[in-house]
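WARN retry 2 of 3 for item q-0093 after timeout on previous attempt; input resubmitted unchanged.
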Amino acid sequence: MSDIEIALPDGSAKEYPAGITPLEVAKDISPRLAKEVLAAGVNGDKWDLTRPISEDASLVLYKWEDPEGKHAFWHTSAHLMAEAIQELYPGTKFGIGPAIENGFYYDIDPGEGVQIKESDLPAIEKKMQELVKQKETLTRRSISKEDALKYWEEKGDEYKVELISELEDGTITTYTQGDFTDLCRGPHIPSTEPIKAIKLLSVAGAYWRGDEHRPQLTRIYGITFPKKKMLDEYLEKLEQAKERDHRRIGKELELFTFSQNVGAGLPLWLPKGTQLRMQLEDFLKKIQRQYGYEQVITPHIGNVSLYKTSGHYEKYAEDSFRTIKTPIEGEEFMLKPMNCPHHCEIYKSKPRSYRDLPVRLAEFGTVYRYEQSGELHGLTRVRGFTQDDAHLFCRPDQIKEEFIKVMDIIFIIFKALDFNEYEAQISLRDPNNKAKYIGTDENWDRAERAIIEACEETGLKTVVEYGEAAFYGPKLDFMVRDALGRKWQLGTIQVDYNLPERFDLDYTGDDNQKHRPVMIHRAPFGSMERFVAVLIEHTAGKFPLWLSPDQVAILPISQRFNDYAFEVMRELSKHEIRAYVDERSEKVGRKIRDAELKRVPYLLIVGEKEAESGTVSVRKQGQGDQGSKEIGIFADELLQLVDQQMNAWKSEQKKIEE
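OK item q-0093 returned
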C-alpha cells in the first residue's frame, strides 16, 4: 500500500501508510495525546478517529478543550441516551438527536399512551451508566438509500424514513453501538468509555421539524462530561443561572410584565424597566450623534407590497402576523417584520448625490414576528421587539470604512456594559443551497469580501459559518459571553447589495451618472428586549449606577422623618438623580434589607441627627456604611461618578481612533 502525507497544524508533515486512522497518527505523536483526543478534522471535514485516511490530507486532532471535541462527545452521548431509551421503552421512534452548545437532546416518540416525565429521567440515566460500563464501540457504516429506507420502514419509524427520503444515495451513513443503530453523519468518539458523568436535565415538547402542524415529540435534554468534577461545576452554574433568571429578577425589580389580555410574547415595560431601557437608548443615541447618524421614525405597519418588494413577505410570511385587510378592495397591510424597507423609502424620498453619502438612518423600531407559543421565553423570545436599527447607504468605496466604524460602536457598547468576552462570527450563505437567498452571485461575492477584508484590516479574530447569512446579505455576528460563560448572539452588521437593487435606489455620481448605493444594516444591541434580558442575567440585576432605574433609596428611620426624606429626594431630583423614599412604617433594618434586594446602588439613612445637620448617612450596595455626608456633597460626588461611567466610552473611542 502506498504512503500518504499527513500535514499537521504546526506546519510539520509526515508520511504514513494509506488507510491510517487519525487515532493511529495521534498514538504516533504521543500516547498521552491518543488518550485525550476525541475527534479529528481531515481536510476541513469533521471525522471519526477510527475512519481511515486514504490520500494526502491535513489533519487536526480535537480534544475536550476544543468545541469540535465536545461536539463529538455530546453527539455520542445523544446516541447513548437513545440506546438506553430503546431498551427501557421498546418501540420508541427517534427524530433527531444533535449535540448543542451545552450538551445534547433527542426528539423521540415513545408511542401512544406512553409519556416520559421528569421523574423518569433518573432511570434513563441509570441505564446509560450501565451501558457505558460495557465500553461499546461506535461503528460507522455507509449504506444505500434503498437499504436505509427498508431498515427503518421495517422498524416503523416514519421520522427516519422522512429524513432518509431527502438524502442523496451514496451520502448516507449509520452508526451502531450495542443493539442501537442510528442514521447519522457523525463524527463520534470511538467508544462510550470516556463518558464518566451523566445528567439528564429536562423534558420538553417539540414539534417534528419545528412545524406546529406536525406531531409533537418528546425532547429530552442532557449533558455529559469526562470527569464528575466537571459535571458538578456545570450543575453549580445552572443553579447560579436560575438565580440570575431575567424573568425572576425582572419581576422582583418591577421591570416588565406580560398579560394574556394583551397577548403572549408581547412584553409590557413597567416604569422602572422603561427608565432602564430609555437610559440604554439615550446612551446609544449619544454615541450615534458622534458618528453622524440621523434619527428617524417609521410606522408599525406597511403595505404588503412594500415587503413583497423587499423579499420579507416571501421569507417571513409564515412567521408573521396575518395581514390586515382594509375596506378598499385588495389593500392589505402587515405588522412590519423589519425596519429596512421603511428606511429604503426614506432614502428614496429625495434625490441623492455622491456628496450626500453615506446617509446614516437610525431608529429604535418595533417589529413583529409570530413566534410559536412553545418557543416564547421571557424577553429573549417574544413576538414584538424593538431593534436599535440603523441603515447606512454608502458608495462602494465607503463600505469598508463605514463597516469598521460600526464595529467601533459595538466595541464601545460592550466595553461600557462590561461584556469583555465575545466572539465574532462571519455568517456567509450556504454555497450548496443558494435558493434560500436573493441577489446575484457577483453581489454576494462582493458583500462577503467586504466583511472579510474589514475584519482582517482591524485584526478581529473571527470564525466563519456557512448558511448563517441573512437572506439578502452576509453578516458579522457578535457572540457575547455573560458572567456565567453562556454565549448570546447580540450585535450584528450586514452588507447588502440586494435591497438597493430591489428598491431601485440610486445616487448621482461625480460622473453625473446614476449609481447604486450599498446598504449596511446594523444593530449593536440587536433586540432591546433580548439585550435587557442578557444584561439582567449578566449583572444579576446589579446594574451600573448610570443605568440603574433607582440610583438612590432614602430610608427614614421612622415616619417622623418622612418630610426630611422627601426634602432630600427633591434636592437629588434637581441634580437629575433618580431616588425614592421608603415611607413604610417598617424598621430601618427591614428597609435596608429590602433596598439591598432591589439592588439599589446607594441607600441614604435619615433620622434626627441627619435632619438637624442637613446630612445623610450613606450606605453602598454590597459595601455597607460609607459615613455621613452633606446632601449637596453627596449629590456632586454621585453626579461625578455617573458622568465618569456615562462618558467612559469616549476614552474607548479615543483608543480606537489612535
